[in-house]
Amino acid sequence: MTSPNTFRIKSFGCQMNVYDGERMAELLGAEGMRPASDGEDADLVVLNTCHIREKAAEKAYSDVGRLRREDGSKPLIALAGCVAQAEGEEARRRSKLIDMVVGPQAYHRLPKMIAAATAGRPSVDTDMPAATKFGALPRRRRSGPSAFLSVQEGCDKFCTYCVVPYTRGAEISRPFADIAAEAEQLVEGGAREITLLGQNVNAWEEGGRDLASLIRHLAGVGGLERIRYTTSHPVNMGEALIAAHADVPELMPYLHLPVQSGSDAILHAMNRSHTADSYLRIIERVRAARPDIAISGDFIVGFPGEAEADFERTLQIVDEVRYASAFSFKYSPRPGTPAATMESQIPQPVMDERLQRLQARIAEHSTAFNRATIGKTVPVLVEKPGRRPGQMIGKSPWLQSVFVTTDAPVGSMIEVAITEALPNSLGGVIARAEAA
Ligand code: SAH
Ligand code: SF4
Ligand code: F3S
To answer: How is the beta sheet containing 254-256 ordered, strand by strand?
Structure first.
């Protein structure tokens, strides 16, 4: 095979995979490759996979199979992300089409792996080196108006249903100085908003400094107007972080704080180390600090042993919190996790029915939250063109997507008078464009 000139990276799963996909693209760019254009066959395809729910591996292998071209040829194929980490050597046994298997902590070594694969030597690298990959990646140059920045990786929480502690390894915090430098590069490259990422982002720490002090530092970076962070775990929701919501204007009024279930029995079986009540008390404190904050969450329905009464407690907590948005999933047994072998797994039809009821309840609250914005004028950071001609899409401080007809360019901050609310977006008219 000749060495690849073009690449395509497909990222699945969470925002950390999106971030890793961007870093891989920059790395391949620095090696002289370019992204394949639409419709063009890429010489190298990277499947940056997610392992969180059922049939993740099967889906990845069928995606690999579809990369074979009509004439029987194929691109160089790299399996990356969490399925790659979980499958390791097994991936090459299951599909000979795969040339490289590279885990989330090893992708800085892709250039070497590509050179080897081009010379006919496939490789597997799922090392989780103690030194981070970040130092081996090129500096950030160009950025959209809203950028992701991974600050924390891995998880030590071991919720009984979850594969992340196995695919992403133990919790590690990136050094403060690295993060600060990357934030400055992103702002120089065009970012006005940065979302700090981590599987447990609020567990970030360095020598006594916590996420709140990192946020306070970044708030001082000139040109950085909006800071967000995700995903947080309730047990790491400390007083300092809550206080930052009260007095750091750059910190956006939005908190994604998954609860998973409203039943203490289920939370205990999930090994969540919080109760419904302790979660609600956190929400109370956060709201006291920042009354207009939008709360979002994740839910799992049909965890083993979940009785109707447990599920009703989940509906109850949804009503108590009044989520601005939330993701909900049917429990999916993951091989190797403790919950997969628990008794009283819940039948699919019961899960389907509960998921529907939960999503209807969440939609009531998110619609109400969005409706409450009608008549207000809100600052919107313009991110991209909308589907209709002349239309742009941006985000409100509360992470709502806002559609507006305007000639304001991508990257501008505009004031939009909200006229219309749907469960997942807002519409409005321009009240004031940014002074040029
Ligand atoms: N670290 C984050 C997110 C992890 S994965 C956190 O703890 O909040 C994102 C979401 O996927 C989880 O919050 C959970 O709701 C869901 N999830 C994880 N494992 C799952 C499984 N086995 N079945 C169904 N949903 C799952
Ligand atoms: Fe998974 Fe729980 Fe860790 Fe989140 S906190 S990544 S759900 S084990
Ligand atoms: Fe999926 Fe891995 Fe993220 S399993 S949710 S891509 S950490």
So the answer is: 254-256, 294-301, 325-330
Task: Determine the pLDDT at residue 54.
Answer: 83
Kindly give the residue spans of alpha helices, DSSP state H, lying in 290-426.
308-321, 348-371
Task: Give yes or no for residue 228 having a pLDDT over 80.
Answer: yes
pLDDT tens across 249-265, in order? 999 999 999 999 999 99
Stretch (H or E) spanning 56: helix 56-65
Ligand 2: which residues within 6 Å by Cβ?
155, 157-159, 162, 164-165, 199-200, 233
Over residues 183-191, mean pLDDT: 97
**Other C-beta atoms lying within 10 Å of the C-beta of residue 285:** 14
CA 162 to centroid of ligand 2, rounded, Å: 6
How far is it, in rounded angstroms, from Cα 289 to Cα 264?
A: 26
- Pair of tokens at residue 415: 């004031």
83 alpha carbon – ligand 3 mean position (Å): 9
* Residue linked to tokens 């600090």: 289
| In the block, residue with structure tokens 């904050």 | 293
pLDDT tens track for 290-333 = 999 999 999 999 999 999 999 999 999 999 999 999 999 999 99
Write down the pLDDT at residue 135: 87
| Cross-strand bridge partners of residue 209 | 206
Give the pLDDT of residue 372.
Answer: 97
**Domains defined along the chain, listed by start:** 6-128 (3.40.50.12160), 139-252 (3.30.750.210), 254-372 (3.30.750.200), 377-433 (2.40.50.140)
Ligand 1 pocket, mutate which of 50, 151, 272, 298 (most atoms under 8 A from CB) = 298
DSSP 302: -
In sequence order, the β-bridge partners of residue 148 are: 195
List the one residue out of 436, 422, 420, 428 whose CA is nearest residue 380. Answer: 428
Task: Tell the burial category of 86 from Cβ atoms under 10 Å away from its Cβ (0-12, 13-18, 19+).
Answer: buried
pLDDT class for 435, splitting at 50, 70, 90? Answer: low
Helices (H), 161-300: 164-167, 176-188, 211-219, 239-247, 264-269, 276-289
β-bridge partners, 48 = 11, 80
What is the overall mean pLDDT for the chain?
Answer: 95
Q: Say if residues 346 and 406 touch (Cβ distance below 8 Å).
A: no
